[in-house]
């Protein structure tokens, strides 16, 4: 393990480079210089390449030597070329605002709609150049809640996720879904049943009149008539305790308690749903479920090389 590292934004200065030049003339190694400056050895290695110049050391003999002035000159040129000026034109502004209102993230807008870095879009939002504020971000930052742990006497309602075949875990084929519910409030109220294909990230959303095992099974029975579902990975909520009544018990796997990352694809999609159904808002309807399902399946994803789940499913 290295003893030193170069913190983000802490670039070498001309003073650092003059010290490097002097120490190299004294015969110090790159690693020794890294230790003296508190930098990573690779930083010094890169710096040496940047500042090499061919000089005559005696008649008829030339050597490549490190020179601080040359290194500083190359550094300044590289810094200038690395920053491409981006103008906020009326057309760019209108495009960004349009897709922000359609619940697109700055990353997807940057990748699919405008030739502007996502960091620049965030900067424009923060500075008010787009007429938007931090409050318009899709996920306002919140404080961390205490971590929950399962009871030592906990018993899963079915087969553990540990028994799930490797082919499902590795996402080698479509048809293996993660399932969950997205609620509105703590009170008994309508909610959404969500299923996400682990491989294609294709999403299925159904409106539930209540968060009960009976409502889940009725909706899932209808889904099974439309879609080929090979396996289901669920959490240990009571609403999923009776899945085996309508689906093969051998193909149902239950994640560990409070381990939402074991159903990561579904959880990420639930997060997308929150763009339209924030917690505490009682607006769940069948029409909204259909609209959100269409939106998610036509929304580009980084994991799919910025293609949409619909493009992946129907291109094959």
Automatic annotation (TrEMBL):
Gene3D superfamilies: Homeodomain-like, Ribonuclease H-like superfamily/Ribonuclease H. InterPro entries: Integrase_cat-core, IS30-like_HTH, RNaseH-like_sf, RNaseH_sf, Transposase-Integrase, Transposase_IS30-like. GO terms for molecular function: nucleic acid binding; transposase activity. Residues 161-316 form the Integrase catalytic domain. GO terms for biological process: DNA integration; DNA recombination; transposition. The keyword Ion transport does not apply. Pfam families: HTH_38 (PF13936). Keywords: DNA recombination. GO terms for cellular component: cytosol. This is IS30 family transposase.
